[in-house]
C-alpha cells in the first residue's frame, strides 16, 4: 500500500485565498490587518522563516512589519519594543521569533505580548484558554495539523492519536486540540521507554521531536495518518522531517511531506490568526 499525500501547499493556497478576501474586505472598511515579526540575532534558518512569513502577509494583502535586532539587544529593550507594538493600532498580531538569545527570558517576552495580539498562541492566557476550551489563539503548527485532518475528511473522534513530543509550542497544544476533537490521546517524549509500543496502536501519529527517523515503517499501523512536524537536515544538508518518509509511506494511509506539509500550514494559520485578530479589533472598536 502507498499512502496518500496530504499537500500542505495546496491546502495553504485555499486557506490563504480566503484570508486575502477577508483582508481586502477589512481594508475596504478602513482596517488594514497588520502583523509585526520581531527577530533578534541573525540565525540563517530564522531569517528564512521570518522572510517567508512577511512575504506570505504581503501576498495576502496584509500589512507587515519586520523588526530585526542585533543579538546583543537587551531584554529590557525587547520588552520596550513589544510594549510599543502592543500600543500600535496598526498592528493586530505580534510574533517574536524563537529561539531568543540566551540572555533574554523568552517566557517574560511572550507574557509581555498583549493576549489579543498573541497570534502565535504562545501566551499563558492563550494556552489556558485552549486548556479550558475558551476562545483564544491556537498555536499555529498544531492548528495547521488539525486543518490538514479536516482537509482529508478525517474525524479524530474515537481514534487513538499518539503525539511524539511535549513542547509548549507543538506537542502539548497538539494533544489538547486532538482531545478537544474527541480522540483518545497519548503523549510520548524522551522518557517514553518503548515508543513503538504506542505508535503501533495509533490511528493518528504526530511526530514533533526534531530528530530524523524517529518514526520508521515498523512503528506504524497500516492505514494510519502520519503528520510530520519535524524540521531537520539529512547528511546531504537536505530538509527532512522526523519520519522516515520513504519507508512509512508504504504502510501509512496518509502522510505529510517535508517540505510542503506542516511548514507552510504553520505560516497559513499565522495569517488566519492575524486576520481573526484584526476582525475582532474592528468589532471591539465599533462596540465602543
Ligand atoms: N513545521 C513547522 O512549522 C514547525 C516545525 N518545528 C519543528 O518540530 C520539531 C519539534 O519542535 P519543538 O516542539 O519546538 O521541539 P522541542 O525540542 O521543544 O521538543 C521536542 C520534544 O521531543 C521529545 N523527544 C526528544 N527526543 C525524543 C525521542 N527520542 N523520542 C521521543 N520523544 C523525544 C522531547 O522530550 P522531552 O520533553 O522529554 O525533552 C520534547 O518533548 C523540530 O524539528 C522543530 O524544528 C517546530 C515548530 C514549527
Ligand atoms: N515565534 C515563533 N513562531 C513560530 O511559528 C516559529 C518560531 N517562533 N520559531 C521557529 C519555528 C519553525 N517554524 C516554521 C515555520 C514554517 C516552516 C516552513 O515553511 N517550512 C517549509 C520549508 C522552508 C525551507 O525551505 O527551509 C516547508 O516545510 O515546506 C518551517 C518552520 C515556525 N516557528
UniProtKB/TrEMBL annotation:
Give every Tetrahydrofolate dehydrogenase/cyclohydrolase NAD(P)-binding domain span.
139-281
- EC annotation from Swiss-Prot or TrEMBL: 1.5.1.5, 3.5.4.9
SUPFAM superfamilies linked to this entry? Aminoacid dehydrogenase-like, N-terminal domain (SSF53223), NAD(P)-binding Rossmann-fold domains (SSF51735)
Q: Which Pfam families match?
A: THF_DHG_CYH, THF_DHG_CYH_C
Keyword field contains Hydrolase: yes
- UniProtKB keywords: Amino-acid biosynthesis, Histidine biosynthesis, Hydrolase, Methionine biosynthesis, Multifunctional enzyme, NADP, One-carbon metabolism, Oxidoreductase, Purine biosynthesis
Please give the GO cellular component terms listed in this UniProt entry: cytosol
Q: In which pathway does it act?
A: One-carbon metabolism; tetrahydrofolate interconversion
Molecular-function GO terms, alphabetical: methenyltetrahydrofolate cyclohydrolase activity; methylenetetrahydrofolate dehydrogenase (NADP+) activity
Q: Which residues bind NADP(+)?
A: 165-167
The answer to whether the entry has keyword Heme is no
Quote the catalytic activity from the record: (6R)-5,10-methylene-5,6,7,8-tetrahydrofolate + NADP(+) = (6R)-5,10-methenyltetrahydrofolate + NADPH; (6R)-5,10-methenyltetrahydrofolate + H2O = (6R)-10-formyltetrahydrofolate + H(+)
Residue stretches making up the Tetrahydrofolate dehydrogenase/cyclohydrolase catalytic domain: 6-120
Protein's GO biological process: L-histidine biosynthetic process; methionine biosynthetic process; purine nucleotide biosynthetic process; tetrahydrofolate interconversion
Q: What does this protein do?
A: Catalyzes the oxidation of 5,10-methylenetetrahydrofolate to 5,10-methenyltetrahydrofolate and then the hydrolysis of 5,10-methenyltetrahydrofolate to 10-formyltetrahydrofolate.
Similarity remark? Belongs to the tetrahydrofolate dehydrogenase/cyclohydrolase family.
- PANTHER family in the cross-refs: C-1-TETRAHYDROFOLATE SYNTHASE, CYTOPLASMIC (PTHR48099:SF5), C-1-TETRAHYDROFOLATE SYNTHASE, CYTOPLASMIC-RELATED (PTHR48099)
Under the heading HAMAP family, the entry gives:
THF_DHG_CYH
- UniProt name for this protein: Bifunctional protein FolD
The species is: Roseateles aquatilis
Amino acid at each position: 500500500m502507498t499512502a496518500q499525500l496530504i499537500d500542505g501547499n495546496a491546502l495553504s493556497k485555499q486557506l490563504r485565498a480566503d484570508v486575502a478576501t477577508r483582508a481586502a474586505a477589512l481594508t475596504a472598511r478602513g482596517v488594514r490587518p497588520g502583523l509585526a515579526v520581531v527577530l533578534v540575532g541573525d540565525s540563517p534558518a530564522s531569517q528564512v522563516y521570518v522572510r517567508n512569513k512577511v512575504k506570505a502577509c504581503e501576498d495576502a494583502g496584509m500589512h507587515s512589519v519586520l523588526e530585526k535586532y542585533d543579538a546583543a539587544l537587551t531584554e529590557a529593550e525587547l520588552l520596550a519594543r513589544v510594549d510599543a507594538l502592543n500600543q500600535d493600532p496598526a498592528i493586530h498580531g505580534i510574533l517574536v521569533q524563537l529561539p531568543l538569545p540566551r540572555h533574554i527570558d523568552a517566557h517574560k517576552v511572550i507574557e509581555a505580548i498583549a493576549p489579543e495580539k498573541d497570534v502565535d498562541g504562545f501566551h499563558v492566557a492563550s494556552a489556558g484558554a485552549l486548556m479550558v476550551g475558551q476562545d483564544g489563539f491556537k498555536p499555529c503548527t498544531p492548528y495547521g495539523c488539525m486543518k490538514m485532518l479536516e482537509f482529508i475528511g478525517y474525524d479524530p473522534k474515537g481514534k487513538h492519536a499518539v503525539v511524539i513530543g511535549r513542547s509548549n509550542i507543538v506537542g502539548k497544544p497538539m494533544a489538547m486540540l486532538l482531545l478537544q476533537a474527541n480522540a483518545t490521546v497519548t503523549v510520548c517524549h524522551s522518557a517514553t521507554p518503548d515508543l513503538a509500543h504506542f505508535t503501533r496502536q495509533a490511528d493518528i501519529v504526530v511526530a514533533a521531536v526534531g530528530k530524523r527517523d524517529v518514526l520508521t515503517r515498523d512503528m506504524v499501523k497500516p492505514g494510519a495518518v502520519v503528520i510530520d512536524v519535524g524540521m531537520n537536515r539529512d547528511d546531504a544538508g537536505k530538509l527532512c522531517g522526523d519520519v522516515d518518509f520513504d519507508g512509512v509511506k508504504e504502510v501509512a494511509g496518509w502522510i505529510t511531506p517535508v517540505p510542503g506539509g506542516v511548514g507552510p500550514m504553520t505560516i497559513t494559520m499565522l495569517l488566519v490568526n492575524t486576520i481573526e485578530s484584526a476582525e475582532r479589533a474592528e468589532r471591539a472598536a465599533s462596540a465602543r
